[in-house]
């Protein structure tokens, strides 16, 4: 279902979760800590969630940087031409990188 929805450019069931993460990070951090029984501090989790470099979205973003690194260190024998080379084809309609 997720892939058919993404192909059509429609919102997916995960969209409300992503919206919640982006709109209520303190609540999400608290619930996450409770669910995992983590000993981490809420403030530390919020610092990560509030980092402007951290984004929660349905589309892949900036993954070619990792592909380039993996290629340079030998984890990938062939450098992908596009992020679409290593993601599910069902999300190819989304803008990504």
Helix-strand layout with pairing:
Layout: H1 2-7, H2 15-23, H3 25-36, H4 42-50, H5 63-72
Structure, briefly:
This protein is mainly alpha-helical and 97 residues long.
Question: Features of this protein?
Answer:
mainly alpha, 97 residues
Determine the mean pLDDT.
83
Total count of helical runs of at least 4 residues: 5
Outline type: extended
Backbone structural class: mainly alpha
Count of distinct strands: 0
Give the termini distance in whole angstroms.
Answer: 23 Å
Low-confidence runs of at least 5 consecutive residues? 1-9
Which range best describes the helical content: under 10%, 10-25%, 25-40%, 40-55%, 55-70% or over 70%?
40-55%
Order of helices and strands: HHHHH
Instruction: Supply the number of structural domains.
Output: 2
Largest sheet: none
Rg estimate, integer Å: 17 Å
Tell me the strand percentage band: under 5%
Characterization of the model:
The protein is mainly alpha-helical and 97 residues long. It has two domains: 1-55, no CATH class; 58-86, no CATH class. 47% of the residues lie in helices and 0% in strands. The protein has helices at residues 2-7, 15-23, 25-36, 42-50, 63-72. Helix 3 crosses helix 4 (42-50). The protein is extended and about 40 Å long. Residues 1-9 have low confidence and may be disordered.
């Amino acid at each position: 279902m997720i892939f058919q929805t993404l192909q059509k450019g429609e919102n997916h069931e995960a969209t409300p979760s992503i919206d919640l993460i982006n709109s209520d990070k303190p609540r999400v951090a608290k619930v996450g800590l409770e669910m995992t029984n983590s000993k981490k501090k809420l403030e530390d989790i919020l610092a990560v969630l509030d980092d402007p470099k951290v984004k929660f979205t349905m589309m892949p973003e900036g993954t070619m940087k990792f592909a380039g690194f993996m290629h340079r260190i030998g984890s990938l024998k062939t450098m992908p031409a596009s992020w679409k080379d290593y993601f599910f084809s069902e999300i190819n309609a989304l803008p990504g990188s």
